[in-house]
Design a protein that fits this description.
By secondary structure, the chain is of the alpha+beta class. 22% of the residues lie in helices and 31% in strands.
Length: 831
């Protein structure tokens, strides 16, 4: 169809929708998306990239995961690729006026020739979205209707669903994948009128107060000192984000205002729960492997793709009227993580770090194809300019160069042969060689078009340097003013100071030419010593009054974490030190999630979950790398009491292990049923439910353990022999829960819908899956009074008064008294 119809239907002076620009046609990595659209009637706009545009269908009832459902999909006009990131309000009176949510996003792979399939009326494809996956089909209907009617059908595979699960899918997935907003929140008047042009006096002062960013020094390898933390080096645009009363400015390291280039980031920052703040970040785009891609970012900014732009935020310089730059890095990052964790906005990602182990981290980063890492002195302040508090280690040689000229191609259709590059040595230009690879036909043409506007007669470097070029080559070169920068990767510098095996990565517009110097790594030992000497790093000693457990200093042990019972951080740590051997029986070697509450629990106190080993946790808190559904994740685990104490020192209260060990992660060692009652259900009914479940398990040959959760309910846990897969365990648990509901529907429910739980007990079997967790045995809960999740003998159930009746003092008396002697079991076959 092209974009003529799209343009014809819209007045772009009145609608915020993107203009009708056809993108570059691609054969692979094709984008797919669905937008939930509340216009004349609610529907879902299904869009597939092809030939530089988005083919579009309006699916009236939305996609269904049930292969038996055939959803009407009316073909509509093609849309530009840039429409793939649109979310907001189309004004009333305009075509399609109403609310638009970005509901799903990813890539699609056609089966066979998509052009032939489209012409034939049967398009088969695979979706790899955040919500939709697997095999799908679009089938054209032969009807006399003037509209082009198709059917959207889910093909039967591992991703398809049936029954109530399929029916509830759209209802449960009712929020934007990029902003987390509901349709009502997107339609809110504040959302409609948000603008990056808001002005604020405080904002203007902040921009003046923080004009420059801190830069890293290139070193030959990462520092090994324990006082250093390490972060992933991102491949994008460096930005400072200024926020004040909803007004936002995004500035590059050169002070350019790029707020309008990154409106999704600016809008996300405007909604943070802060009065005013200054953030240091990198704007990035992720490729299909989860790595940051500079070229991908350029493509999105140029409208060629619609991949979301994300802000990876790694520092906080100012918060609510208080400058933070003089504080240590870890003291700045702690409130930063709280702010971003509370916001839960996909456009804003916290850049976590790993303490120590820099050599391991750079090796893994290079193995994964990343650019490198940034090592930062944990106790150092934020210092603008290039300092040795931040050190960068690269997997490959890569830096910016000034473009000095371009040559005509010797043959072929490409617009140029090579770019000629230089850098500043002092105030004089130094010739660095040429780069002739890494360009697409379109990129080369675009570059030449812009360079022609700034051509000059002579090169900007000396005759002696130009002499290396032969007469024939020199005659083909068009010299240009030293105004345009590009980024280049290369293997090494030659003896005569030129690049060996360079490859073009993209143009840069966020730096000044005079800043481009030759980057040579310095010895890390000298950089490390200079940084540490500057802030006089000394071995940390326990202050008087500090508590030392398992060799770990517990700072501020007097801090009250629960006013009820007056529980202090020191008392919590002492309890965990004594309980650790018993806790490790059920959590040692298992990935864990932590609930951290640095200020304690109670009204107005904030807690947040942590699942990876960053944020200064000690060496006994270990990383676990896990790949699931083609995505790489990093979690944490501990194997000894010292690791548990390191966790508590950093403000954790709750510990939630997975149901499998890191060494055998695909085979759980337990099956958990969480009996979670509605508040109106008496605890006696929960106790009866536990007995009912135990009886049902015994009928199929399974023995179970009992635990009160320290919260509202009870856990019934079956020890497993690590021979059954997650899918097998979850299916078995689901069938057991469904049978309980079928037998006693007035008492039980097995779905997550809170609206239907009234007066019932939720038989939660969903904890039997990858990444799902449950409170550890003997674990303290982050609730007033600090109740403990206590293992029980079944004989104790009758006299149990409450699932949260055990205090820390009670738990200390019970350590080791409950003997779970049930041997690991296999699930019964055919059940």
């Amino acid at each position: 169809m092209g974009l003529k119809e799209y343009q014809k239907k819209r007045d772009f002076k009145k609608t915020p929708e993107p203009g009708p620009k056809v993108g570059r046609a691609r054969k692979t990595n094709l984008s797919y998306l669905i937008q939930k659209h509340d216009a004349t009637r609610l529907h879902y706009d299904f869009r597939l990239e092809m030939d530089g545009v988005l083919l579009s269908w309006a699916v009236t009832k939305g996609p269904s995961l049930n292969p038996s459902d055939k959803r009407l999909a009316v073909r509509t006009e093609d849309h530009p690729l840039s429409y793939g990131s649109f979310e907001g309000i189309i004004p009333k009176g305009q075509y399609g006026g109403g609310t638009v949510m970005l509901w799903d996003q990813g890539t699609w792979e056609p089966k066979g020739d998509p052009h032939a399939g489209l012409k034939k009326g049967h398009l088969s494809f695979t979706l790899k979205g955040k919500r939709l996956h697997g095999a799908w089909g679009l089938i054209r209907m032969h009807t006399p209707d003037k509209r082009e009617n198709w059917l959207l059908v889910k093909e039967k595979d591992a991703e398809s669903l049936t029954g109530k699960k399929a029916e509830k899918f759209l209802e449960e997935e009712a929020f934007s994948i990029t902003t987390g907003r509901s349709m009502d929140e997107i339609a809110d008047q504040k959302t409609k009128t948000w603008s990056s042009k808001k002005s604020d006096k405080v904002l203007d002062k902040l921009v003046e107060q923080y004009p420059d960013v801190q830069l890293a020094t290139l070193v030959d390898h990462p520092p090994k000192g324990k006082d250093w933390v390490h972060e992933i080096k991102f491949d994008g645009y460096r930005l400072l984000g200024f926020v004040s009363n909803g007004a936002v400015r995004l500035r590059t390291r050169n002070g350019n205002d790029w707020t309008d280039k990154f409106t999704n980031i600016a809008e996300a920052l405007s909604k943070l729960d802060v009065k005013d703040a200054v953030f240091d970040m990198e704007a990035v785009v992720m490729d299909e492997n989860g790595k940051t891609s500079f070229q991908g970012l350029k493509n999105t900014l140029g409208g060629d793709t619609d991949k979301p732009i994300i802000a990876c935020i790694f520092d906080l310089l100012h918060l609510n009227g208080k400058p933070l730059a003089d504080q240590s890095l870890l003291d700045r990052k702690e409130p930063l993580q709280k702010i971003l964790s509370k916001a839960k906005n996909p456009s804003l990602q916290y850049s976590d770090h790993v303490a120590g182990n820099g050599d391991t981290m750079i090796a893994k980063s290079c193995q994964l194809g990343l650019e490198g890492i940034i090592s930062k002195l944990a106790e150092a302040p934020y210092s603008a300019g290039r300092q040795k508090f931040w050190l960068k280690s690269k997997c490959n040689k890569r830096q910016e160069f000034v473009i000095l000229g371009y040559s005509d191609p010797k043959k072929g259709q490409r617009a140029m042969g090579a770019l000629y590059l230089g850098y500043y040595k002092g105030n004089r230009m130094q010739y660095a060689g040429k780069v002739g690879t890494g360009f697409t036909m379109r990129t080369a043409a675009d570059i030449v078009r812009d360079l022609k506007k700034i051509e000059i007669k002579k090169p900007n470097f000396s005759r002696d340097q130009a002499a290396i070029l032969g007469a024939g080559e020199y005659a083909r070169i068009h010299w240009v003013k030293p105004e345009v920068l590009c980024e280049v990767t290369f293997t090494e510098w030659t003896d005569d100071g030129h690049l060996r095996h360079p490859s073009f990565e993209g143009l840069r517009t966020d730096k000044k030419p005079i800043e481009v110097k030759e980057e040579k790594p310095i010895k890390v030992a000298s950089a490390e010593k200079a940084a540490e000497d500057k802030i006089a790093i000394k071995p940390k000693k326990a202050k008087s009054g500090d508590l030392v457990l398992e060799g770990i200093t517990i700072t501020h042990p007097e801090r009250v974490i629960s006013e009820t019972g007056h529980i202090t951080k020191g008392e919590l740590a002492e309890y965990y030190a004594k309980a650790a051997p018993y806790m490790l029986e059920s959590m040692g070697g298992h990935p864990i999630s932590l609930l951290r509450c640095p200020d304690g629990v109670g009204e107005g106190k904030e807690c947040f979950y942590q699942r990876n080993p960053g944020r200064g946790l000690g060496p006994d808190v270990k990383p676990f790398h896990f790949k699931h559904k083609d995505k790489n994740y990093e979690y944490l685990y501990v194997e000894n009491p010292k690791g548990i104490i390191e966790i508590i020192q950093m403000g954790a209260i709750e510990i939630h292990p997975w149901g499998a060990k890191t060494k055998n992660i695909d085979y759980p060692d337990r099956m958990i049923f969480d009996l979670d009652p509605d508040p109106s259900v008496p605890f006696e009914a929960v106790k009866l439910a536990a007995l009912d479940l135990r009886k049902r398990l015994k009928k199929v040959g399974l023995e179970a353990n009992l635990k009160c959760t320290g919260g509202k309910g009870l856990h019934v846990t079956v020890p497993l022999a690590e021979k059954d897969t997650w899918d097998e365990v979850k299916r078995f648990a689901e069938k057991m829960a469904d049978q309980m509901v079928a037998d006693v529907p007035e008492a039980y429910i097995a779905t997550m819908s809170k609206s239907k739980r009234e007066g019932k007990i939720f038989i939660d079997f969903f904890r039997n899956d990858y990444t799902a967790t449950a409170i550890v045995d003997y674990g303290v809960r982050a609730r007033e009074g600090a109740p403990v999740a206590m293992p029980l003998n079944w004989s104790e159930l009758k006299k149990l008064k409450s699932p949260s009746q055990f205090s820390i003092k009670d738990a200390l008396k019970r350590l080791g008294k409950v003997k779970n002697t049930i041997k690991p079991q296999r699930l019964p076959k055919g059940k």
